[in-house]
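seq:
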Amino acid sequence: MKAFIYQISGALILLAALGYALEHISTADAWVSEWTLFVAAGVAVSLVGAILQRRSKKAYNGIQ
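struct:
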C-alpha cells in the first residue's frame, strides 16, 4: 500500500507540473527552470514507489 501511495503522489506531482507548464506556455523561458524541479521530484517519488512495490512482491513471493 505504501508503494501505491508513492506512485500516486509522483503522478500527482507530474500532473501539477504539466498544469503549471500549460498555464505558462507563453513564457517558456521563465517556467522551464521552475517545472524541471517538479518533474524531477515526480519521477523520483514514482521510482521510490516502484522500488518499494518490487521489494514487497519479492518478500511476498519469498524471493531474496
